[in-house]
TrEMBL record:
It comes from the Eukaryota. This is Uncharacterized protein. It comes from Linnemannia schmuckeri.
């Protein structure tokens, strides 16, 4: 329990430190998503999404 408390306190101190903290926060929040999208295939639009996009573009 004490180790978790010390780790969270260290992380909060790092996040207060400007660019280093912002970089760490960005990596922690975006890296899992980036790793997931790096290995996955491009999303395929469904037919209903294609119809909705065509209607939207026609209205523009």
């Amino acid at each position: 329990m004490k180790e978790a408390f010390d780790n969270s306190r260290f992380m909060s101190k790092m996040l207060e430190k400007g660019i280093v903290g912002k970089t760490i926060l960005y990596i922690v929040t975006h890296l899992p998503q980036w790793l997931y999208t790096m290995d996955s295939e491009a999303p395929v639009m469904s037919s209903s999404e294609q119809i909705a996009r065509a209607i939207f573009e026609k209205q523009q």
